[in-house]
Write a structure and sequence with these properties.
With 515 residues, the protein is an alpha+beta fold. The chain is 52% helix and 13% strand.
Length: 515
């Protein structure tokens, strides 16, 4: 199977980081709501201007062109909207566009400069044109169009006030007709130069003496709003790009610090065993001081323990085979001689040899079964809390009652209880095996000492006897399976299997201790 250049975890982290970026960015795509609020605010401002002008014109009584123009001239072009005063018949009596453009809306002189209405112009401002033509803005437009390909915009609003029908020549605009009839008139017309922009028209009736004498028409383009929205969108797109770059860098960093170490652990785990299930490698561990480093070190320790267990299993089978080899060979030889020997005394001697070797094999089988059960079932037996001092007292008392060689046992323990967690039967077996070994090597009248003391979070038990001691060459072997060293007893192998101390070590290590 072809592997991806990035791991699945790296791709998920990248997707997660990008999702955190796209969720707020997706909200920015709905700036249309903000645009609608700006349009409503602009219309309210236009209506307010129209009402103020209508109130001023109402004081003049009947409207005339001279009075209306004089009133508009006194405003000194301080309004952002185009104001027109309309008479009873619909004729325009005064218009702020006839008084000249505002100072800040003067076109830049040039070979193709023409005088246009700054309030209803369909040409974008220089700043907005420069922004819209920038490469960054065009890139954002491409992404926006791709987004709208997946999620198209809603269809046209059938209730929109934007004009879509043609009127007969000379007919009044519907909003003007509504105002001359005494109602508020409003209309929004698309600008031919930019379909996204429009010009808002608000017409307020002028009343004098209880009747409508004219109307005030306020017109203003939405180019300023759209220009501001373009700048906002561009700034948001810059933040979005910076966020995407930061997400990519963070994903790369996380991939380097998390995904790659995990991939290395996976590769090591794949190469850990061969097709037959045998260990052929190990985890290398790590110096990292985080959870991945802890995992690598735990796996390294796990492979060491597994390797030790497999080695134990392999050597255990070899040791058992070796220990059974000698008694089986002796039994075979004795039975072959029985068929040829006629002397009753010799036949009894051979039968005794067979019985001793059979008994030895029984002891070996019993010890092998016991050490195997300890290795397999110790953790499942439970480890209740018990008083080690009290347990040792019971074991020592039992040995004192049956000590036949006059060996004295001296128990030195603290006054209070010393609590440990272990099975009382298994733990008693450990000390019984140790006492058997110590008393077996002690001279008549000797003393075996058991010293118990707390040691940090453990309990330390020292067993000492007055026997000949252990040769330096055998110090590392005394707890090995089937090892027995009794130079003073020529037939010691017949009565000892060499599993007592090995069983003691298996139980101690099974409870997390050492021996």
């Amino acid at each position: 199977m072809r592997r991806l250049p990035l791991s699945r975890l790296s791709l998920r982290l990248l997707a997660f980081n990008l999702l955190l970026v796209f969720l707020p960015a997706a909200g920015f795509l709905y700036l249309d709501v903000y645009e609608s609020q700006l349009l409503v605010a602009q219309e309210r401002a236009m209506v307010q201007q129209g009402r103020i002008l209508a109130a001023a014109l109402a004081e003049q009584g009947e409207l005339d062109a001279a009075g209306a123009e004089a009133l508009l001239a006194r405003m000194e072009q301080r309004t952002e909207a185009r104001l027109r005063v309309i008479g009873r018949g619909g004729a325009v009596l005064a218009d702020t566009s006839r008084l000249g453009p505002r100072a800040e809306d003067q076109p830049v002189p040039g070979p193709s400069t023409s005088r246009t209405d700054p309030y209803e112009s369909s040409s974008p401002s220089p700043v907005r044109r420069e922004t819209r033509e920038s490469l960054l803005y065009r890139g954002g437009v491409v992404l926006y169009r791709l987004w709208r390909t997946v999620l198209p915009e809603p269809g046209p609003d059938t209730d929109s006030r934007a004009s879509r029908t043609s009127r007969p020549a000379g007919a009044l605009d519907p909003e003007v007709a509504a105002a001359l009839a005494g109602r508020y008139g409003a209309e929004a017309r698309r600008n031919p130069g930019d379909p996204r922009s429009m010009t808002l028209h608000s017409v307020i009736p002028v009343r004098s003496g209880g009747e409508v004498v004219g109307a005030v028409r306020v017109s203003q383009s939405t180019f300023r709003i759209l220009g501001a929205l373009v700048e906002v969108r561009l700034d948001i797109f810059k933040v979005f790009l910076a966020s995407v770059a930061a997400a990519a860098v963070l994903s790369l960093l996380v991939s380097t610090t998390i995904a790659r170490p995990l991939k290395r652990l996976r590769d090591e785990a794949t190469a850990l065993v061969d097709r037959r299930g045998r260990l052929k490698g190990s985890f290398r561990g790590s110096r990292r001081r985080d959870e991945i480093g802890d995992l690598a070190r735990a796996l390294e320790q796990l492979t060491r323990q597994l390797e030790g267990h497999l080695r134990f299993t392999e050597t255990f089978a070899a040791d058992v085979s070796h220990e059974f080899k000698n008694p089986l060979a002796a039994i075979r030889g004795a039975t072959e001689l029985l068929a040829e020997v006629e002397d009753p005394a010799e036949r009894a001697r051979l039968l005794g040899m067979v019985e001793r070797d059979v008994a030895r094999m029984e002891r070996l089988l019993s010890g092998v079964r016991e050490i195997t059960e300890i290795d397999a079932r110790l953790e499942g037996e439970g480890a209740p809390a018990l008083d080690l001092t009290g347990l040792l007292g019971e074991v020592v008392e039992s040995y004192r009652l049956r000590a036949g060689r006059g060996v004295r046992i001296d128990l030195q323990a603290p006054a209070g209880p010393l609590v440990v967690r272990a099975s009382p039967e298994r733990l008693a077996q450990v000390f019984e095996n140790l006492l058997d070994n110590a008393m077996g090597f002690s001279p008549p009248g000797g003393t075996v000492t058991l010293e118990v003391a707390p040691d940090d979070h453990f309990a330390r038990v020292l067993v000492a006897d007055q026997g000949p001691g252990i040769p330096e060459a055998h110090l590392e072997r005394i707890f090995d399976r089937f090892f027995s060293y009794r130079p003073g007893e020529p037939h010691a192998r017949n009565g000892h299997t060499g599993l007592g101390l090995a069983i003691a070590r298996a139980i101690a290590e099974g409870y997390g201790g050492t021996i």
